[in-house]
Amino acid sequence: xxIGHVQLAAPFCQAGLAGYSDRAMRLVARRRGCPYAVTxxxxxxxxxxxxxxxxxxxxxxxxxxxxxxQIIGSEPPQMAEAAKILADxxxxxxxxxxxxPVKKIRNKARGGHMLRDVPRAMExxxxxxxxxxxxxxxxxxxxxxxxxxxxAAEAFERITDAAWALxxxxxxxHARTVEQKYVGASRWEFLRTFKQRYPARxxxxxxxxxxxxxxxRMLRETGVDVVWIARGAIxxxxxxxxxxxxxxxxxxxxxxxxxQRQALREHFAIAREIHGEQGAGRRMRKLGMRYARFHxxxxxxxxxxxxxxxxxxxxxxxxxxxxxDGPGVWPAANAADEVNDTPADCEAAA
Length: 350
What we know:
Elements: E1 2-3, E2 6-7, E3 12-14, H1 23-30, E4 37-38, E5 42-43, H2 44-49, H3 51-57, E6 67-72, H4 76-88, E7 93-98, H5 118-131, E8 138-145, H6 150-165, E9 170-177, H7 188-197, E10 202-206, H8 212-222, E11 226-229, H9 239-247, H10 257-291, H11 298-306, H12 311-321, H13 335-340
Parallel strand pairs: 3-11, 4-6, 5-6, 6-7, 7-8, 8-9, 9-10, 10-11
Antiparallel strand pairs: 1-2
Helix pairs in contact: 1-10, 4-5, 5-6, 8-9, 10-11, 10-12
């Protein structure tokens, strides 16, 4: 599977979620089979101001490839300049976010609102493609429509047709409307129809993928080329290897207690390197709660993670609950509901 010249080892991708999927989350997942990752949506104006905002936005290393830098914004020249910054800093793919259900800024469309401003969307597609070297792949992330009206469906078709015509290497479709945000079922049959319409194009599908079984089922039911895993990867860096194993007909088992401990240690160490000890403590509390779903004593482990404030606190939780090895457990049947309730923001903070 390829996105432009970028070869993927498996048909799965870690999506970007603000507040979660930083370099720490990406690297922990890559070491456990994640073949491709996308950044949080990076606001073009933050990057163009330079300084701290730019430094926080540009955060990859040699292990963090292949990677797509995802940008979001309203103005074609600014989006084009932001795309150039990411390409020049070594990002393998540039992804345009026309999917996030964010609010408008000063009455200007961005994210999913591009589906209501087709001329602006087309100008951005053109400006970004013109600004980059031909060998840099560009992709588009988009919702299936702004709402369920006929006009919204037509706008989706015009924008996606324009992206293909301009040479975009792939399109990722989230199978909800912008108005739905993250409420209600994702319409996978739309993904199947879209892929059937463009059998020779690379299509990524997203929406309601919470387990490895969901990822494989999306591939088989819709025919998309790559499954975009977002909230399902929070606290579950094993989901990519598990999905690849299931696809190959191999049995899977939950991570052992020591496998969980190793992932938790790695995640906190990289997060501390990026955010400092206090910042890592704040960020990792919510991630620790998600990891705890695989522990036999989930409720007590979660309670201890909630109290984490420092590296010492984090180490104490691991010493208490992860010192003795043993089998892990699969999350409860309602665990997908908990992940589904996770506040889903698209944009990285300034």
